[in-house]
Amino acid sequence: MNNKIALFSFISREIQRFTRVYVQSLFSPWINAVLYIFIFGYVVGSRIDSIAGIKYIAFVLPGILMMNIISASFQQTAFSLYFKRFAKYIEEYLVAPLSNFELLTGHIIGGVTRALFVGTGIYVIAILFHAASIVHPLWFFFYSVTVSIIFALVGVFIGLWADNFEQLNILTTFIIMPFTYLGGMFNSVSMLPEKIQWFMKVNPFFYFVDGLRFSMTGVQESNMIAGIGIITFCILGLGGLVWYLFKIGWRIRG
């Protein structure tokens, strides 16, 4: 019972962490989404008839949504864990009645919750612009949550590894943003020359974006079984890795 109370308290604190700075954690991605939707829905979209049989904004929106889900879950866990180390109060959590698994679970739930807050806000904004739809609600929930879990785990790892705030942004700058853009966010696979289509198909972000696009529009270019396999492998592999790092106290125990 004590563990349940401690875990609930930890999760509540993680959620309060991003709701207290809602302008940065929530309003900022929502405002960016408005700009993306306006530019690609009304400026660029008015000059492009359709892609894969759907309006350009409907094709692009899942990529915008997925990019923000990824960024929100990653930033929540990476910055939260790093700041605990930086401010030297990680020890308070290590001596609390929480197991390594529970500590990891609390961080992940915090990351997923922030990602869902951000994603829900963007979806509501898209509705106001008449740009949103959901064809397969269960798949929409599946991709939103599982990809959030993956990047919450990545954030935990980076939060343990980083030695300064600059290193926390390395993954966003050099991996998340470029690979999301190159993962079919703005274009269909068929729009690329055949010689380089393979690059998109070996990019895991392509399966994340395309899976969410399928759930929202019914249009799919990737192999769903391969996408689910990649997601499962990432969750199990990253989950096992960061749990082990917590267990041995890597960079959190002197």
UniProtKB/TrEMBL annotation:
Annotated Gene Ontology MF terms?
A: ABC-type transporter activity; hydrolase activity
The family database entries (Pfam families) matched by this protein are listed as: ABC2_membrane
Which residue ranges traverse the bilayer?
21-44, 56-83, 104-132, 138-161, 168-186, 224-246
Source taxonomy: Bacteria, Candidatus Magasanikiibacteriota
| CC annotations in GO | ATP-binding cassette (ABC) transporter complex
Its membrane topology: Multi-pass membrane protein
Assigned keywords, A-Z: Cell membrane, Hydrolase, Membrane, Transmembrane, Transmembrane helix, Transport
Q: Where in the cell is it found?
A: Cell membrane; Membrane
Concerning its family, UniProt says: Belongs to the ABC-2 integral membrane protein family.
- The answer to whether UniProt assigns keyword Endoplasmic reticulum to this entry is no
Which InterPro entries is this protein grouped with? Answer: ABC-2_transport_permease, ABC2_TM, ABC2_TM_bact-type, ABC_2_transport
Coiled-coil features, chain-numbered ranges: none
Task: Give the PROSITE patterns listed for this entry.
Answer: ABC_TM2
Name under which the protein is recorded: Transport permease protein
Where's the ABC transmembrane type-2 domain?
20-249
